[in-house]
From TrEMBL:
Coiled coil start-end: none
Gene3D superfamilies for this protein: 3.40.50.2020
Superkingdom, taxonomy of origin: Bacteria
Origin organism lineage: Bacteria, Bacillati, Actinomycetota, Actinomycetes, Micromonosporales
Protein name: Amidophosphoribosyltransferase
Amino acid sequence: MAVRGSLLSDTWSALVDLVLPAECAGCAAAAGHGGGLCADCVAALAAARPARVRPQPEPPGLPRCVALAAYAGSLRAAILAYKERGRHGLAGPLGDRLADVVAAAVVPGPVLLVPVPATATASRDRYGDHMLRLARRAARALTRRGWQAGVACPLRARPRPDSAELSSVDRLRAAEAAFVLVPGRLAAVTAAVRGGVRLVVVDDVVTTGATLAAVAARLRAAALDVQVAAVLAATQRRVSAR
Ligand SMILES: [Zn+2]
């Protein structure tokens, strides 16, 4: 049911993107094209160079984290339009750039992208699981470039409390409790990892790093090592030099 609903809303979004001349999701000025971005915003995204980021303070267990750019400007606007306003056509340009981040973060070889899972509520509010869709697009882009790339979903998200009023320690604890392993999916992922496939956790924005650390911890608990996390954007003050 959920999958069917998500497919329908994907189809609907694609139709809306085609029929309505959407304004650019990155700058709101020019008419959008190429997945909903104007030529200037496409060029700005293409010019961004992935770099390592380190949240301060760095949560324990955070894997090496590489981001395309700071969470600002047209990238921030495009991410918000994609996940909060159902502009699914942006999965194209954003997913392709996520593939660039993965390619910059690990040496070429077989990879499985593990999207940070969305809660059922978030999926409903956001017209489908936005990170799963981005991860699939990124895996396809990597495959076109000759990589052996796929998507694995060995975790699911539990409903979580509103974290706005939590202290940073409580937030870390809440993040750790937010994900559970899906037993039925572990065997295939474990077999792939034993066969030399690397796991890359992917997400849209890194802020405190608590979510990525929690995902890595859950996977480690199942003896699955996460090499690196690849994200589109990092909140600005946390972007550091390589
Ligand atoms: Zn634009």
